[in-house]
Amino acid sequence: MRLNTRTDKRIHLDTTYDILIIGAGPIGLAAGLEARKAGLSYLIVEKGCLVNSIYNYPLNMTFFSTADRLEIGGIPFPSIHAKPTRAEAMEYYRRVADKFELNINLFEEVQHLEPIGEQYHISTNKGSYVARHVVVAVGFYGIPNLLHVPGENQPKVRHYYFDPHYYYRQKVVVVGANNSAADAALETWRKGADVTMVIRQPELGSIKYWTKPDLENRIKAGEIKTYFNASLTEVREREVDIQTPEGKLTLENDFVIAMTGYQPDFSFLERIGIKLTEDDKRHPQYHPETMETNLPNVYLAGVICGGMDTHVWFIENSREHAVKIVQHIVQEEKVAQV
Q1: Measured between alpha carbons, how far is 224 from 221 in angstroms, rounded to an integer?
Q2: Which pLDDT tens digit goes with each residue over 149-190?
Q3: How many CB atoms lie within 10 A of CB 155?
Q4: I need a surface site. Which of 164, 241, 280, 298 has the fewest CB within 10 A?
Q5: Which CATH code for domain 2-142+262-337?
Q6: What does the pLDDT look like over 265-310, one tens digit per residue?
Q7: Which fold has domain 146-258?
Q8: Residue 112 — φ and ψ, nearest 5°?
Q9: Can you tell me the distance from the alpha carbon of 138 to that of 28, in angstroms, rounded to the nearest whole number?
Q10: Going by C-beta distance under 8 Å and a sequence separation of 6 or more, which residues neighbour residue 85?
């Protein structure tokens, strides 16, 4: 390793990793575990903190899945709850990383990927690396789906919801129909907010079975005002406009919590050369048996595989991607040695 004095970045070109893994979420960690088990050299590079997406979940979030379905590398996930919490998940993945001393660089963002012969030169904001294989295991929680309405750029509009206490005695509009919107509406209402939900559909969407009846009862009782078949059309400093089937409605408002979902960083995939479909789904190209993309020896793992279909892949059904990828790499190494 040497120091580039012009950019003050550390250059690691004297070490060639078998695998460089982009993303230290559960699936990126699973890929590291599989590489370690196979005796391959690897490095995990993460632009945020460990399991960054889970860290950005709401403070009191409970997973829909049971703990055993969130396990990686065959390591038991103990939980005192039927459904584990955000805090338990972060503790579990920290313990996994520590127990196996996983090789992880945090707060380091990959900026460029360049093929050099049969290897890849990976540039980050902190250094440069060489690897024979690359696994892209980034999530989709970093880029929110925008409302595209006037006033959306105001500080009062939040695309991430964390702690309900912040909204005590505030007039809050929650946009969305699914789990995140339901949690935000119920939790802020319980902490003393005046909550109005704005939902494009004629009914509530996909909501956890233990949450949906609670929200339905709050709506029926008039405790959480709800407008179906409606949309938020403008945000101003002290009020918002909502288009309802009966016409435009203007409400006093302090905060808008837009739980409209998130999307992968398609520009990053395109920048490194991974092909995407040109339709609205933006599905990245990869082989489902090996997870290899159109770029030789570059693989996809986790929710990124679904493109805009962000409700297809989860921790529980994509952790096997790590197994497929490492098995394919090991098999190719064996063939190359014959």
Answers
A1: 8
A2: 999 999 999 999 999 999 999 999 999 999 999 999 999 999
A3: 7
A4: 280
A5: 3.50.50.60
A6: 999 999 999 999 999 999 999 999 999 999 999 999 999 999 998 8
A7: FAD/NAD(P)-binding domain (3.50.50)
A8: -155, 145
A9: 8
A10: 60, 61, 62, 63, 79
